[in-house]
Design brief:
- The chain is mainly beta.
- It has one domain (about 25-180): Lipid/polyisoprenoid-binding, YceI-like (Lipocalin), CATH 2.40.128.
- The chain is about 15% helix and about 50% strand.
- The protein has helices at about 1-20, 80-85; strands spanning about 25-30, 35-40, 45, 50-55, 65-70, 75, 100-110, 115-125, 125-140, 140-150, 170-180.
- A hairpin with a 2-residue loop joins β9 (about 125-140) and β10.
- The chain is elongated and about 45 Å long.
- The protein starts with a helix and ends with a strand.
């Protein structure tokens, strides 16, 4: 009799566990055809090396996560001397701080396919909270986030305040990611 009760207990527990469904976020890895460009009156340029992961589900934004690392040594301004200067301690100090990083803390749906992705942006060891508006699109197992936001370079001690280089840099991005 004990054996039958024990079997029913385990069968019941198994069925109860099976009744619960677990939401698993879709996992994506950033692909090589990304684009990160910065623009101002002068200078402008792009970063050529970035890696990252996105855990994203439109129905579970609280569990969604964006985690990116940009290799600042991959900066290209289109001018060899400017590109080299961008690596110096005055600007990105790539020897001490080879990566700029972004880690999301909150994802909010706005209207249509627009999302606000709030997170910690770290440049030169300085971390600031930023909100990045991004348009989302999906085609099969590939997703893309695309948008524009501003960064005050002085907040991150990238260069010194001057009349020659604007404080505010406009950052345009397109980040495609492949499902894994």
């Amino acid at each position: 009799m004990k054996k039958i009760k024990c079997s029913f207990f385990f069968l019941g527990a198994f069925l109860l566990l099976g009744a619960f469904t677990f939401a698993v976020l879709d996992h994506y890895e950033v692909t090589k055809d990304f684009s990160i460009e910065f623009k101002s009156k002068d200078p402008s340029g792009s970063f050529k090396i970035m890696e990252g992961d996105i855990d994203f589900d439109e129905k579970d934004l609280a569990g969604s996560n964006f985690d990116f690392k940009i290799d600042v040594r991959s900066i290209s301004t289109g001018n060899g001397m400017m590109t080299k200067k961008a690596q110096t301690p005055e600007w990105f100090d790539s020897a001490k701080h080879p990566y700029a990083k972004f880690k999301s803390t909150k994802v909010e749906k706005k209207e249509g396919n627009l999302y606000n992705i709030t997170g910690n942006l770290t440049i030169k060891g300085i971390t600031k909270t930023v909100t990045v508006p991004a348009n989302y699109s999906k085609a099969g197992s590939k997703i893309t986030f695309k948008g524009t936001f501003n960064v005050n370079r002085i907040d991150f001690k990238v260069g010194k305040k001057s009349t020659a280089v604007p404080d505010i840099m406009k950052v345009n991005f397109e980040i495609p990611a492949q499902g894994k």
